[in-house]
Write a structure and sequence with these properties.
This protein is an alpha+beta fold. It has eight helices and twelve strands.
């Protein structure tokens, strides 16, 4: 199970069997019940995680005290690589929205692994840089883009990250309340409800209790990119 999970992760993709064996040998298993936290924003970064089952919410409290949901993570997602940096702190919260199981490496095990396999160290650096850019892009969206574009972009990201193909489209695989989407896009529950209802009437999406299915990806992409109807 650990080896197969590692093969499916971007961080370990394409690496040798020996590297995967070393990584699996020093991994530990952790289970986090629904609603509990893996870690909190501001905690010392001591563990790197790869989700095996379940879904978790990534969120951050802004300096103004407002919670912003930055995304949802599902199986095969890597979280907390910043633990590779001595003295680093987690920049956000990670909370289970379903019961989760994960592989985890503490800082000592991660350091040993990176020293033994320099390619993993290089990938860790790239991952930290990528996540930093993603955070910057998210804040730029919140500050500058129209709310329809923000909601469209958020849904498209979720479909890519944790989408589950179905007969009618692609469903966000984790529970997604409208309030979650409001906190993800820096707007109000009323605005999210109004926009989703309009998109549902147009056949772009379908919704249910904490469920969103993307039915017409090209149209939602045009909204996200602010393109005219073709």
């Amino acid at each position: 199970m650990p080896i197969e999970l590692l093969r499916q992760c971007r961080y370990f993709a394409g690496l040798s069997a020996a590297t995967l064996d070393d990584a699996a040998a020093c991994a530990q298993h952790r289970r986090v019940p629904d609603g509990e936290f893996f870690f909190h924003q501001g905690d010392e970064a001591r563990h790197f995680y790869i989700l095996a089952t379940g879904h978790a919410r990534l969120s951050q409290i802004t300096p103004e005290g407002r919670q912003v949901i930055l995304g949802l993570a599902g199986p095969r997602h890597e979280i907390g690589i910043i633990a590779a940096i001595e003295g680093a702190i987690y920049p956000l919260d990670l909370q289970a929205v379903q019961a989760c199981a994960a592989l985890t490496w503490d800082r000592a095990a991660l350091g040993t692994l990176l020293e033994a396999h320099p390619l993993l160290a290089l990938r860790a650096l790239r991952m930290v840089s990528t996540r930093f850019v993603e955070l910057q892009d998210r804040y730029r969206e919140l500050a500058t883009e129209r709310v329809e574009r923000r909601i469209a972009r958020a849904l498209l990201r979720l479909v890519v990250q944790i989408g589950r193909p179905e007969a009618t489209g692609v469903t966000v695989a984790a529970p997604l309340a409208r309030q979650d989407l409001a906190e993800m896009t820096g707007t109000t529950l009323f605005t999210v409800s109004r926009i989703l209802s309009a998109w549902e009437a147009q056949g772009i999406i379908s919704t249910g209790r904490e469920r969103v299915t993307l039915c017409d990806a090209p149209r939602l992409t045009r909204i996200a990119e602010d393109l005219p109807e073709g």
